[in-house]
Each structure stands twice: as C-alpha cells, then as structure tokens.
C-alpha cells in the first residue's frame, strides 16, 4: 500500500484509502514508546553525512533532507526542527510527526482548511481534506502542466507533497518496533493484518536509497527494496537497533549506530567519499551566509576604518572562493551551471575586481565598498533561488564542462562588470566629484568585451547543440540587448551626445538590462533557455525595475539642480 509520487498503479487501487489505512496503522499498530527524552538532543552529525542516491547523484542526508523538506514545507527550518532533524524524527518515529503542521498550503480555500497565519497543516488534516478531490487529482496528474490553472497547480503540489511525506513515513516501517511486541516487521513481530498492511506499504517505497549494491545500473536501493529482493546487508540490522534506541531516548547509542552506518557506506563509496565529506561540511557550515556577513561589515566600516573594512571584505572573499571551489569539487563541474550558481560566481567577480582596484589605489575604498555591497545584495537575492538542495545535477542541455567554463563563465563575468559599471553610475550621480568617475568608461568597455564574447560563444554552443547559431530565443535576445545597450551609451559618450551626467544615468540603468536578461526572460517560460524559470520572481523583478528607475531619476534631478545652482 502506497501513495505513489507522480503516478499511481491499477484502476482498482484507491491511493487515498490506502494512505488513510496506512496512517491508521501507524497510529494504531506502529506505536513507539513515549519515554521522556534525555536532556541531550540527538546529534545529526553522522546521520546527516549518510550517502543517499537522489535526483541523479549521490548526496548527503542533509542535502536529501533539505530537498524533500523544501518540497513539503517550503523551508529548511520549521517548528524548532531543521530538515535533517525532521527527517530523522519522521523515519524513526513517524507517529510523532503526522499530527504536527509541516505541510505548507498557500490556498487554503481549495481544500476548505481552517485559515492560519502560518499556512502549515498536519498530514492528518491534509489527507482528510484531499479525500473528496481524489478523482480530480488523478485527472490532473495526466494533464499537461501548462494547461493547469493556479488553483489546480496548487492542489497538485499539495498532493505531491503528501505523496512525498508518505514515502518518508514508510521508508523504515519494516524496522520499527511494533505494538505489543519488541520485534519489528523484519523480526517477525505484529499480527497477520498488521504485517500485510506494512508489507503493502513498502512494496513501492523507493525514495530513500541508502543500501549499496553491486549493480552499476542501480548502485543504491531503499531499505524496502533490499528486504523484498533479499539483499544481505548489516545496515538493516543496525537501523533496527537505531529505531529501538531512538524510541527509548538513548540518543548516544543511536548516534554510535549512525556512525557505524556511515563508516560502512564510506567504505562502499571508496574514492568518492571525500566528495560527500566536502558536501557535509559545505551544507553544515553554510559559508555563503558568512560571506554576506563579512561583506556587510566591510561596507559598514568603509568610511570609518578603511583598512579594517578591506580586511573584512578580503576575508569574506576568501571564504567565497573556497565555497565555489567546494561546489566545483563536489559536483565535478564549474560552479556556473544553475541560476543560483551564476549569482554566486558573479558576486565573487565583482569583489575580486573591487579588491584589485583598491590595492592598486587606496583612494578607491568607496569603489570596494560599492562592490562588496553589490555582491552582498546578489548573494541575498540568490537565497530565493535555493529550492531545498542547491547542489543540483544539471539538465542535459547544460551538462558540458567546456561550455560552462567558456560561454557561461564569460557571460557572467560580463554581467558582473555591468553591475559594477551601473553602481559607479549611481555614485557619480550622487557625488559630482567622486574619484570613481574615471572608472566609468573602463568598466563599461570591460562589460562590453565579456558580454560580446560570451554571446558569440553561446552562438557556437547553440550551433553544436541545436544546429543553429541564432534562433531569436528570448535568452539570446536578452544577451544581445545588453550588448546593444552598452554600444549605444559608449557611442553616445564618444560622440558627445551623452555628457557626464547623462552617461552616468544611462550606465546606472544598465542594472535593469542585466536583471531582465539574467532573470527576466526566464519568466516567459518559453524558448530553449526556460530551464531557469522560478515561479513568483515576477513581483520582485518588477519592483526592482520600478525602484531603479525612481532612484536614477531622483539622482539625475538632484545632480541637475545642484549644477544649475553653481
């Protein structure tokens, strides 16, 4: 018995009834002892480092937990638990989580749920509310997603979150202690009806793949797959001990067993285990948050303590580069494959240029602080593009290290120079005598160079992948828009049509062109580059454009009035 994720099998099987029966089984039969918790909380260090095969790559349990929990709750922290803690609790004590609000629902009216400020509901509540819609959901699964309305998409999203939650609940059901018996399912415990229901629930459970195999086409399988296929592994008996220890509140023993499982899995993965270790530290330390903190501190101290400010920014940049290096080693590719990664890489280029110019001329602390502030803003924006696990496997069209290292890297460097040039334009409009004014033209030329070369390289890549150099795809048009915009304002400056103030204003508006190309064209959901689409970004992008136009107009008018008085 299982509620399948993305599909169902057999017209005679009702997934809602099956899940309801399973939940009743969880509550009635799979009772976990409710012993008082020890003062010490369970450590997630070893458990969180377990290798899991998910979404086409072997990742750590932390990354897996973040991905799953984000799909269910839309966050990685909720109700005092982080994603890894929620995963451990749901796996080893599922009865304790199905009554807690973890499923996020934005449109409560479609399920007639009570209104709550938090918009979170329990598995029990959502399953009860979904039951009347089961026929509709079966039809929605078969429809083209582009034809679905917003309420239908939300309903389908909730259904898939419940399906995912159900898969996690059932993942370790075979090794949990059963009611009225010290034995688990694999130990022969439970009544015949209880065992039949649990076995049916595990039949299609393949989400959490942690058991290694010798099969190259399926290197890891789930616990239930191992049980059903009679795969011999000591991991299952260790998991059984962990379940007993967890429900007895003996977290020290539980953590020791988690370490044993990790050691066995590390030996299995051999030479690739170091990547999992890097990923474990990367996910645990969250280096980009520290990078933002150091950049903001540098900006705050730039006017008062320039040397200390440059030290903070330099320290943040070292961590920034280290984080990008970690990502490259973990994923075995350049850190420019996703929209999120391009923001990380572009912000690093901005700070690098700022540091180089500052150490060549200490009078440019203002430029360094502007670069650090811009980088911190881009990193803050990047947080909105993390969909649980940020270490993603690329779509097939992007899965080429050569073009990621050439076209994508070049074009993102061009975007970075565009941002720096635009911010210099803001500064010059604010202060008519700013020493950064002399950087306007060099930064614009550098932006034009990299965006032009990057666009040409993209055409060559398109010719190799799609058989045509140029197809007027929205992303291609956006890249061309930036090139034409930079050529236009440079030509205006050289020909004398743009004076200093007008050139600075046009340069400041380059931020809008970059935002439209970097993110905006992805909103169209059409073309061969629509893989970067992030739902809900339209409001943020529209607000940014309005604010930019307002700020530049205000600064231009302020500069004009100031000059007219003199």
Structural shape: elongated
Total helical elements: 22
| H/E topology pattern | HHEEHEEHEEHHHHEEHHHHHHHHHHHHHH
Q: In terms of quaternary structure, what is this?
A: single chain
DSSP, total strands: 8
- What average pLDDT do the residues reach? 84
Instruction: Provide the β-strand percentage band.
Output: under 5%
Radius of gyration: 27 Å
Structural class: mainly alpha
Query: First CA to last CA: what distance?
Result: 82 Å
Largest sheet: 2 strands, antiparallel
Low-confidence stretches: 1-13, 26-39
Residues in helix, %: 55-70%
Spatial ordering of strands, largest sheet = 1-2
Provide the descriptors you would attach to this structure in a database record.
about 575 residues; mainly alpha; two-stranded antiparallel ribbon; two-stranded antiparallel sheet; elongated
In short:
The protein has 566 residues and is mainly alpha-helical.
Task: Write up what this structure looks like.
- With 566 residues, the chain is mainly alpha-helical.
- It has helices spanning 15-28, 45-48, 61-73, 83-92, 123-130, 134-142, 150-171, 192-202, 223-228, 234-248, 251-269, 273-285, 287-301, 306-331, 339-360, 365-382, 401-430, 440-466, 474-495, 500-508, 510-518, 537-565; strands at residues 51-54, 57-60, 77-78, 81-82, 103-104, 120-121, 209-212, 220-222.
- The strands form four sheets. It has a two-stranded antiparallel ribbon with strand order 1-2.
- Strand 7 and strand 8 (220-222) form a beta hairpin.
- The termini are far apart.
- Mean pLDDT is 84; it is low at 1-13 and 26-39.
């Amino acid at each position: 018995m299982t509620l399948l994720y993305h599909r169902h099998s057999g017209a005679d099987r009702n997934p809602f009834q099956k899940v309801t029966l399973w939940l009743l089984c969880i509550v009635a039969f799979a009772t976990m002892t409710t012993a008082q918790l020890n003062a010490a909380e369970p450590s997630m260090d070893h458990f969180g480092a377990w290798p899991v095969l998910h979404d086409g790559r072997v990742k750590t349990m932390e990354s897996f937990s973040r991905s799953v929990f984000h799909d269910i709750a839309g966050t990685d922290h909720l109700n005092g638990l982080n994603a890894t803690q929620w995963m451990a609790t749901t796996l080893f004590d599922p009865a304790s989580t199905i009554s807690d609000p973890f499923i996020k629902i934005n449109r409560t009216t479609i399920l007639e749920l009570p209104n709550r400020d938090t918009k979170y509901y329990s598995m029990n509540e959502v399953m009860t509310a979904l039951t009347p819609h089961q026929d509709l959901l079966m039809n929605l699964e078969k429809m083209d997603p582009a034809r679905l309305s917003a309420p239908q998409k939300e309903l389908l999203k909730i259904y898939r979150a419940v399906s995912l939650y159900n898969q996690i609940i059932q993942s370790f059901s075979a090794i949990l202690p059963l009611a009225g018996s010290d034995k688990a399912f694999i130990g022969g415990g439970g009544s015949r009806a209880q065992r039949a229901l649990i076995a049916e629930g595990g039949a299609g459970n393949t989400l959490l793949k942690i058991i290694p195999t010798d099969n190259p086409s399926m290197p890891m399988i789930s616990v239930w797959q191992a049980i059903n296929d009679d795969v011999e592994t000591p991991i299952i008996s260790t998991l059984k001990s962990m379940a007993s220890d967890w429900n007895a509140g003996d977290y020290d023993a539980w953590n020791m067993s988690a370490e044993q499982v990790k050691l066995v899995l590390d030996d299995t993965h051999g030479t690739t285990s170091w990547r999992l270790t890097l990923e474990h530290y990367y996910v645990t330390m969250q280096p980009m948050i520290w990078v933002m903190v150091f950049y903001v501190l540098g900006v705050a101290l730039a006017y008062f303590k320039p040397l200390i400010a440059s030290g903070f920014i330099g320290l943040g940049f070292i961590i920034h580069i280290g984080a990008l290096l970690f990502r490259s080693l973990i994923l075995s590719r350049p850190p420019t494959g996703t929209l999120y990664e391009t923001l990380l890489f572009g912000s690093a280029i901005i700070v690098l240029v700022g540091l180089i110019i500052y150490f060549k001329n200490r009078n440019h602390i203002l430029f360094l602080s502007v670069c650090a502030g811009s980088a911190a803003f881009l990193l803050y924006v990047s947080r909105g593009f993390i969909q649980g696990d940020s270490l993603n496997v690329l779509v097939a069209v992007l899965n080429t290290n050569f073009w990621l290292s050439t076209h994508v890297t070049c074009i993102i460097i061009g975007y970075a120079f565009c941002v720096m040039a635009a911010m210099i334009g803001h500064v010059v409009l604010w202060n008519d005598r700013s020493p950064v004014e002399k950087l306007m033209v060099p930064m614009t030329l550098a932006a034009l160079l990299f965006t032009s070369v990057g666009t040409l390289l993209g055409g060559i890549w398109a010719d190799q992948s799609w058989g045509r150099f140029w197809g007027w795809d929205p992303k291609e048009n956006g890249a061309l828009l930036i090139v034409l915009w930079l050529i236009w304002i440079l030509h205006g400056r050289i020909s004398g049509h743009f004076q200093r103030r007008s050139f600075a204003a046009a340069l400041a508006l380059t931020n809008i062109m970059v935002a439209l190309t970097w993110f905006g064209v992805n909103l169209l959901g059409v073309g061969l580059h629509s893989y970067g689409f992030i739902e809900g970004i339209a409001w943020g992008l529209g607000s940014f454009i309005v604010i930019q136009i307002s700020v530049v107009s205000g600064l231009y008018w302020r500069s004009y009035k100031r000059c007219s008085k003199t």
